[in-house]
């Protein structure tokens, strides 16, 4: 493998950087750490990107995307992370978009993809249920055909951002008699449909990201089904493969390293800056080494994807295992770097109930603690590390 970025990619990086410096408004830069920007910020940034033809960096050009390859997409993500730009809606862009591209009808694409590009439609993912997480194919939410509609009944859980989403992509069982995977269909559902109830789950970071989502006689047009009835597992497997690689979240790791280095020179123990303390400097250097190795791995996966190599799937799971482990250790070191402030920083980042604007160090500390607590879940969401190791072992046998 060639470790030197080619000249074309370097020129592309310069183009992206110049674009961001010109079009990313100061008010949207340096988004606080803590997983997701507000919907307003995301929609605003989405509109700016779209107005300049960069609305969907991960989509093919025939559906309004930039048509960039995986290496270009990585460069775009890295440059956005360096300036702390709001992230795009990962469910719409990285998970649903490619599924629409591969499996949806032209009418479905025309209805949903432009709305995503314009930042008008946020999505959530209705896969997991109580009793169906790692073993997703045992899901029980039922959809029964009634003329041109399905009537959906059941419960989803851990539904990230269901309380903010306009639509949900939903796995339902349409044939209870068929073999587990064979009886599943993939539906697109408007969250405003009567019969949907969303209840919050507050996580250890004190924030509201997650929900329980209930479906009580929810009528969904048959035309909202992606692919054939009972054939939803194909699109699901395709989506999950993309999700594994995306969850490694290299852009966030790069951002953590940026903040860690800033803290290393601005935080002192007595009169000695953290960066001057050998133990801290060693840990930081080791993490940077691991981060660079992950970066190379991400670029290698991009190459393998281009070559349509059969090991790409294994690499997606390996990326998820390595990336999420590093997310947890780096956010741990971030909190440690704050010293005593790290301990008092455990306040909900979005809770303004006390009616006081936080001081600058409080703002930063809150974001960091929130991020650290949230990342405890990164080895669970998108498929647990144990399950990813199982996938790697199984696929290695098949190669
Ligand atoms: C923060 C967060 C956000 C999430 N967002 C969403 C979302 O938006 N939409 C959605 O649908 N879901 C979401 N999830 C759910 C997530 O996909 C599941 O939590 C995950 O797949 C694990 O399923 P489970 O929680 O049912 O655990 P279980 O499957 O019950 O697993 C319990 C334990 O058993 C282990 N285990 C299970 N099977 C195996 C095996 N075969 N080999 C080895 N070990 C095994 C697991 O590793 C785990 O330690 C989210 C979860 C979290 C924590």
TrEMBL record:
Residues covered by the Acyl-CoA oxidase/dehydrogenase middle domain: 124-218
Domain Acyl-CoA dehydrogenase/oxidase C-terminal: 230-395
One Gene Ontology term of the molecular function aspect: oxidoreductase activity, acting on the CH-CH group of donors
UniProt record similarity statement: Belongs to the acyl-CoA dehydrogenase family.
Cellular component, GO, one term: plasma membrane
Protein name as annotated: Acyl-CoA dehydrogenase
Top-level taxon in the UniProt lineage: Bacteria
Organism of derivation: Paraburkholderia ginsengiterrae
Residues in coiled coil: none
Required cofactor(s): FAD
Annotated keywords: FAD, Flavoprotein, Oxidoreductase
Acyl-CoA dehydrogenase/oxidase N-terminal domain location: 10-120
Keyword field contains Oxidoreductase: yes
């Amino acid at each position: 493998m060639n470790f030197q970025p080619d000249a074309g990619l370097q020129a592309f990086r310069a183009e992206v950087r110049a674009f961001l410096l010109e079009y990313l408004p100061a008010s949207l830069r340096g988004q606080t750490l803590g997983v997701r920007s507000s919907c307003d910020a995301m929609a605003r940034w989405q509109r700016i990107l779209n107005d300049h033809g960069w609305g969907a960096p991960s989509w093919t050009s025939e559906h309004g995307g930039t048509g960039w390859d995986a290496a270009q997409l990585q460069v775009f993500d890295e440059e956005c992370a360096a300036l702390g730009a709001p992230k795009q809606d990962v469910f719409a862009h990285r998970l649903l978009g490619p599924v629409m591209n591969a499996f949806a009808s032209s009418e479905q694409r025309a209805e949903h993809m432009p709305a995503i590009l314009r930042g008008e439609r946020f999505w959530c993912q209705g896969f997991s249920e109580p009793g169906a997480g790692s073993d997703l194919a045992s899901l029980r939410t039922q959809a029964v055909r009634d003329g041109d509609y399905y009537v959906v009944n059941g419960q989803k859980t851990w539904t990230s951002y269901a309380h903010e989403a306009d639509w949900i992509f939903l796995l339902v069982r349409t044939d209870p008699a068929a073999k587990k995977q064979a009886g599943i269909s993939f539906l697109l559902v408007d969250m405003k449909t009567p019969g949907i109830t969303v209840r919050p789950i507050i996580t250890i970071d004190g924030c509201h990201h997650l929900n329980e989502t209930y479906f009580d006689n929810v009528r969904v047009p048959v035309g909202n089904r992606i692919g054939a009835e009972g054939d939803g597992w194909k699109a699901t497997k395709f989506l999950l493969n993309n999700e594994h690689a995306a969850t490694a979240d290299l852009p966030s790791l790069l951002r953590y390293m940026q903040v860690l280095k800033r803290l290393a020179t601005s935080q002192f123990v007595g009169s000695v800056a953290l960066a001057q303390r050998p133990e801290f400097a060693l840990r930081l250097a080791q993490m940077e080494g691991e981060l660079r190795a992950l970066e190379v791995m991400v670029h290698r996966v991009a190459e393998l994807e281009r070559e349509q190599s059969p090991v790409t799937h294994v690499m997606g799971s390996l990326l998820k295992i390595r990336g999420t482990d590093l997310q947890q250790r780096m956010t741990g070191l971030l909190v440690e770097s704050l010293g005593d402030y790290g301990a008092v920083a455990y306040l909900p980042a979005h809770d303004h109930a006390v009616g006081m604007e936080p001081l600058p160090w409080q703002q930063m500390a809150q974001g960091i603690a929130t991020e650290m607590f949230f990342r405890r879940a990164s080895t669970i969401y998108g498929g647990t590390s144990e399950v990813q190791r199982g996938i790697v072992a199984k696929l290695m046998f098949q190669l």
